[in-house]
Amino acid sequence: MKNVPRIFIGETIVPGSTISVSNEVLHYLTRVMRTDHCLVFGDGNEYTATVSSNGRGLVIGEQTAHTDPSNGVTLMFSPIKRTDDLLNMATQMGVARFVPVITNRTNANYINWERMRKIVIEAAEQSNRNTVPQILPTVRFEELDLSTVVFADERATHGHGTTGLPSGTETILIGPEGGFSEQEFAALDASGAVGFSLGKTILRAEVAAVVAITQVLLQNDD
Prior knowledge:
Elements: E1 6-8, E2 18-20, H1 23-32, E3 37-41, E4 46-51, E5 57-63, E6 74-77, H2 83-92, E7 97-102, H3 113-126, E8 134-135, E9 139-140, E10 150-152, E11 171-174, H4 182-191, E12 194-196, H5 205-221
Helix pairs in contact: 2-3, 2-5
């Protein structure tokens, strides 16, 4: 349904029920979009909805035929100054979950994760998803199980050999703005993690994430 506002509900949605929503959502619908109709999602499905007669909630209508375009990819990444851009773009690409990873060269340790949550919700609403990706708790690089990971290997820009992506890849690791340390590369190589090239130029971390996700999705579609 083109140009109909989409609202993330975040709970089990029951057709025919009336649910409470924030004044911010009601203001957006009635004052900004000037409509009393919208689409709601939150359990992997999408439903029609209308503002209730008392103007305080939404009345859930029928489930639509729209299927969730999201995928099962997990993006593990080092927080960066533009974490908001990274999460926004990756959400639009259908990523299922995010895992922030503290590496030796991570230089953005203090991220407002509540704000990041709002960003991924808005990105999911705008990108026609029926789900919102999870943002999992931050972990340290040393705590990761690297054996099933594919990672963007910036050494490829300097002639280091890389292999092709294995089919069915679901977990991607992106390094920090300063790249992985020598110790981290050693751990990745020793674990059997698969490094792959993002091209011949050095990319910003948020761009690298988009390119990596694209490569994985194209490989999985083959």
